[in-house]
């Protein structure tokens, strides 16, 4: 599932399109969908030759046998920032965590903290709002938000009776929509392994007393290591 604000600069703002950026954006989106199992080999039945060019590897195309594939955290396009968010529950306490990185994979800022008295639906929407609010405070406009595939329904599905059944979620999503309208946002779902940094921060967040912002100097050592691995493209298996 991908919600794009769109590459509208060329059409509406008179800014020339960069063909390499467009190609990288397409590869980025297709690779993410494939990693999250939202598309598969059958979608490439008549164009399997394109898989390698799209960066999809770990598959025996000739025999039609799908091997376990490596999951790689993908950097956002140039001039974009990526916000990864996640939830974790430790000892019955739900925590959230998230981090912002630039197109080179460098860490900008993150957050972590508990989400008391919340269920998963409320929690993941609150985590997204925390992250978008942090991006807004840093005057970031071009944002790619990544959420684990297990939270996709909770993060992106809104029923017609949402206002009646869970007004808190309704208003949280209205807040998210307000941020999206003020930014150029993409929402992507990713395999859990590809969200390791945010997942580790969320586990730490469940042990904290309140929500905190995390400068690079205050990052837990394991997260620093994961960020460096993501930066150079080391895969998760």
TrEMBL record:
Residues 95-204 form the RNase H type-1 domain. It comes from the Eukaryota. It holds the Pfam family RVT_3. SUPFAM superfamilies: Ribonuclease H-like (SSF53098). This is RNase H type-1 domain-containing protein. It comes from Dendrobium thyrsiflorum.
């Amino acid at each position: 599932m991908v919600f794009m604000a769109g590459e509208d600069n060329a059409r509406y703002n008179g800014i020339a399109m960069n063909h390499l950026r467009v190609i990288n954006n397409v590869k980025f989106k297709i690779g993410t969908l494939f990693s999250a199992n939202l598309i598969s080999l059958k979608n490439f039945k008549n164009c399997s030759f394109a898989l390698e060019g799209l960066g999809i590897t770990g598959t025996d195309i000739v025999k039609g046998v799908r091997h376990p594939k490596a999951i790689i955290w993908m950097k956002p396009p140039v001039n974009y920032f990526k916000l990864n968010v996640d939830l974790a529950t430790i000892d019955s306490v739900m925590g959230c965590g998230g981090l912002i990185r630039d197109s080179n994979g460098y860490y900008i800022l993150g957050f972590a903290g508990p989400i008391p008295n919340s269920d998963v639906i409320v929690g993941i929407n609150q985590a997204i709002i925390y992250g978008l609010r942090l991006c807004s405070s840093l005057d970031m406009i071009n944002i790619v938000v990544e959420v684990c595939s297990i939270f996709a329904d909770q993060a992106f599905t809104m029923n017609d009776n949402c206002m009646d059944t869970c007004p808190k979620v309704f208003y949280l999503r209205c807040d998210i929509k307000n941020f999206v309208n003020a930014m150029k946002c993409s929402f992507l779902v990713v395999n859990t392994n590809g969200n390791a940094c945010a997942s580790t921060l969320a586990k730490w967040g469940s042990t904290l007393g309140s929500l905190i912002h995390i400068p690079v100097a205050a990052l837990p050592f394991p997260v620093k290591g994961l960020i460096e691995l993501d930066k150079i493209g080391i895969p998760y298996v």
